[in-house]
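FYI - complex with manganese (II) ion, inputs then prediction.
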Amino acid sequence: MAQDISVDGGRLLSRLDRFAAIGATPRGGVNRQALTSGDREARALLASLGRERGFALRQDAAANLFLRREGANASLPPLLLGSHLDTQPTGGRFDGALGILAGLEVLETLEDAGVSTPRAVELVAWTNEEGSRFAPGAMGSRAFADETLPESWLEARAPDGARLGDELAQTLRALPDVPLAPLGARVASYLELHIEQGPILEREGLPIGVVSGIQGTRWLEVTLEGASAHAGTTPLAFRRDPMMAATAALAALQADVMPRDSDARLTVGRIKAEPGSINAIPERVRFTLDLRHPSQERLDEMDALVRTVCEREAERARCGLHVRLLNDMAPSAFPEAMLALAEAACTKAGLANRRIVSGAFHDALFLARKAPALMLFTPCRDGISHNEAEHVEPRFCVSGATALLETTLAVLCSL
Ligand code: GLV
Ligand code: MN
Ligand code: MN
Ligand code: MN
């Protein structure tokens, strides 16, 4: 295989600009939520770039899109590179797209240099990593790893009312020339480059993080049912107000969970009162909880606390309570051998690095069930992500792609 090949930084940076234009927001971010027209446009652009270079395309029932650069032995399972093209509603230009375009850059660099790899190298754009339009997140990679697309996911509804099954079908139809392959396939190894989405690498002045593992995530949807009544005429003793229960429960949880455990994360990203009238006690209040922790045991404890506190406050306000599990991702660790390979490859390329735990979840979590997997992080400005202001310095985009290329070559040699 090749020595001394290097990525084309200019090409990578101009591609990042091109994809950022799809779903661009006035404040410099991107709104390209999963399975929307913007997502379909980005998939079509990726497919056409792959086709131009002669890579073989395929998609599966979860609308995961694969670009394959063939290797010397076509029967060996491929080395897979991947990330996602969908974004948060007010997302940034790099969360997901950097990993896809750096992966494409690796395939193209191999192609430019005419490198023959012993096995195929593939790039995949996973569907709906973010999970903010349709829960759970990392849907495409999870379906690929489990080789099934659960019926309940197809019935999931977006806040805009769209049904996931319909959006998926439309997305698959939008690329009529890309053949449909079965869900799941053998994979030799999986690599993903992503932005850190936190402040550590920037603070320490390091271009690369070698991700040792991913903390656990659990999403709950809490519904409190009361009775709608007149805001002006209903005395306290007559109220069954789900907003009183919701605010009391959330205040108690926020005062308890994170202040007592610096590793714990608790976020309420969505809350809705129905019918939503200024002068009516709501009939129903629904909110989501995003819980994170590196320890499975602590995540279970946080989940149990949420249920206990919500039950107590629901009872106090004489309201009904329903808690639904939307997403459950156990903490995971990447194999030591993969970490050592990546560290050596990055160090040899002159890229200083450190190990780091991911606070965000990623598709690699599910690929790790199928094959030795690894993630690399780049720094981002002020640790900001899931925000239109998200920014990665151009030199760190290029060093991230370089790290991905060098790790790809090292992993290919090790297989
Ligand atoms: C997904 O991007 C997450 O970690 O929330
Ligand atoms: Mn991401
Ligand atoms: Mn994200
Ligand atoms: Mn993520």
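The mean pLDDT is 97. The two ends are 13 Å apart (CA to CA).
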